[in-house]
Amino acid sequence: MTTPEQDEPEDTLELFNQPFWKTNREMTLARTAYFKILLPGLFMVAITILAIFSIFWGALWKVPAHLFSGWIVDFDGGEVGQIVTQSLVQAPNAIVSWKVVPSNQFPQGALDVAEEIKNDGAWVAIVINEGVTARYENSLSSPNASYNGAEAITAYAAEARNENAYDILLQPFLQGTLDTIQLKAAMQFTSKLFTSANVSAILEISPQTIVNPVSYTIVNLLPFSQPVAIAAVFVGLIFVLIMSFFVVLISNGAREASRLNRLLSFKSLVSLRLASSVLAYFFLSLIYSLLNLAFHLDLSHTYGHAGFMAFWVFNWVYMMAVGLALESLITLLRQFIPFFLITWIISNVSVTFFPVELLPRIFHYGYAMPFYNLSSAVRHIVFGTKNHLGLNFGVLISWVTVSCITLTAIQWSVRQKDIKLFREKSYTT
């Protein structure tokens, strides 16, 4: 015997009022369709977490996979220079690969060394300043109240090159290593006091000569002095990529709603897609650049007032580089485009948080990624790091060019399939 519920026709089922586990045919089909879409989708998300998220985790778990490059420059040539050089070279658990560089390569002394560090010659340079040993020995024989052990060693580095590497890795290592050298020098020089006839005079006039004979100063040549710049060199790049994706969705929706995808000729459709994207990114990159100005990001450090124009142009080309890649693939991937979006974001972010040269070699693809090159360009414009603008611009334009080619090729392939389906449908009717 059947119940009234089982006999109820499908087309008379009340809308918006069905329990999920109702056993009639229509609800069974609906549940089946629901789970056929939901479960494979969740499986794809799980695969994405394991396969794509692993890129970012893999970039962080073994940092530094390669050592920082470091120079030791001894302008002293005396006992202090020997102690510092030997201690650095023999330091355990070092994250810096030290190279002893002859002082005669720097005619203007420490000024030349500092300039080389700003130009990415090395990540850090330890300079043993000229006449350190002589000043110390003179202070023993003739106590000097103005003796300053911190004038012995100067460490040069540039935080703006990568603030994460500097703050998390390099600076703590330098401080720990130089503190050890400072203590070692103090203990080693203690023996000299027993042979000095001026111990009491030294203690009275210049006690720092005994307590702290050799110390150091860390000079941050290019400080990351604008916290708001974190947005422009890292986090903001993610936001801009997502906004570029919004443009792709809006443009695609507009073409679908207006039926231009089917009405326009192939040439007109490709021209529309490229022109609308380029113009949209031109406008939005200006808005984004003005946002940075509104929050007082100083763009005049390197190029004065022209810094804003350089910043705008690079952000425009960057938006085209990341946005046109999405624009070209949405025709092919359709509802799966979010999976490419997350892959696109993570593959870029993974090579931007820490310097590429410190990451495992597999991550050296980062030199060709849009995030890395825009971040490098902005650091030069905002902080005055080494000028790679030509290379950065070339890489970004290359991405734009490749995306234009792939967009055209994919659109041609899709158009041929659409024409074939249209003809088959017309033939059957």
Structure description:
It is a single chain. By secondary structure, the chain is α/β, with parallel strands linked by helices. It is built from 16 helices and 5 strands. The protein has helices spanning 4-7, 25-51, 53-60, 79-89, 110-118, 132-141, 163-194, 199-205, 208-211, 229-258, 260-263, 266-294, 306-333, 337-349, 370-383, 389-428; strands spanning 68-74, 96-100, 124-128, 153-157, 216-220. The protein has a 5-stranded mixed β-sheet with strand order 2-1-3-4-5, sandwiched between helices. Helix 4 links the parallel strand 1 and strand 2 (96-100). The longest helix has 40 residues, at 389-428. The chain is elongated, with a radius of gyration of 32 Å. The two termini are 45 Å apart. 32% of the residues are buried. Residues 1-10 have low confidence and may be disordered. Residues 42-404 form the DUF3533 domain. The chain crosses the membrane at residues 37-60, 228-250, 270-291, 303-324, 336-356, 393-414.
For the structure shown, list the relevant keywords.
429 residues, alpha/beta, five-stranded mixed β-sheet, 63% helix, disordered N terminus, membrane, MNNG_permease-like, DUF3533
For the CA atoms, what is the radius of gyration?
32 Å
Overall average pLDDT? 92
Spans of at least 5 consecutive residues whose pLDDT stays below 50 are: 1-10
Shape assignment: elongated
Share of residues in helices: 55-70%
- Strand order in space, largest sheet: 2-1-3-4-5
Overall number of strands: 5
The secondary structure category is: alpha/beta
Alpha-carbon distance between the termini?
45 Å
Tally of helical segments: 16
Strand content: 5-15%
Helix-strand topology string: HHHEHEHEHEHHHEHHHHHHH
**Major sheet size, sense and barrel closure:** 5 strands, mixed
